[in-house]
Amino acid sequence: MIDEDKALETLDARLRVLLPEQYQDSYEQMQPVPMRSAGLKYAADGTVAWDEMWGSFCDLAIAGGPPHKGQLLGPGVEAEINEEFDRYDEVGEEICRGIRMVTGLRAYISPTPGWVSVTCLSDAMAAWLVRAIVMENVAARRAGAILELPVAPQFRLEKEIKNVITVIAKTCHYWMGHIPPHQQQAIAELFAKISQESAVVAPAFPDAGIGDDHRRLAAAIATAVQRDTGFARSSHDSADWVGIECPNVRAAVWMMRALVTTNVLSRREGHVLFLPINPASDPRGALVSSAFARVYRWACARGVLTTTDPI
To answer: I want to staple 233 with a disulfide (CB 3.0 to 4.6 A). Which of 29, 46, 78, 222 is the partner?
Structure first.
């Protein structure tokens, strides 16, 4: 119990570093209650006035608020992009235009099909944003200070295009407006410290699609999780993620938030917690499954779970 108490103290300390000030003492009480969605606004020239649409945002999913999407919004598939390349360029340019308007950041269509690139102000900003955005159920990845967000030719203006722009507007709003420079530096230092403990495990998003090795790794993670915690694999199928059934939404939220302090990116759909599959950074699934087992013990010690919780 002494070890678990120390682990929980470390968890709380790390979350206070990662979260904007308004959540630092209240995240345990956060409820995932969504706000009403903002409607599109148009400028005189008929284009969407992305920078005039939001006066406020829902609470961050990383803090325990509602994820922006109920299900993951992922990148386009190269075969579909090649069939509708003109439409793909049109969608990508509109997403980039919106991102530039709402964040002031440089945004452009990535050379890698299915993604738009956003140049963040620092590596720490991109690292924080990728964690926060994935928890909002929008695909994201990064390399250094470059953040990538999904794009596909079938994205619609009032749906998926708006979703991508909204999620970057929301997360940048909190990073730029609610996390002061000294805390941003503390976040950078925390990420460096956590990375010494464990490599970052994020979904692979393989360009070539899901193969047998990928499926075997998903099964290995699920088997280890069930062995260590009793939690079963969900029937939900999701590329790059293995779903784990949690007893309730509160448990899924708590464990998702805790996992970010272990360098494992995760997300949830209802009470199903999704863990990343990445054959490169976690070839046996040991980093992910051991992190989940650790977080499970912390949840039991905190009283969020009991060892008899039904699955």
So the answer is: 222
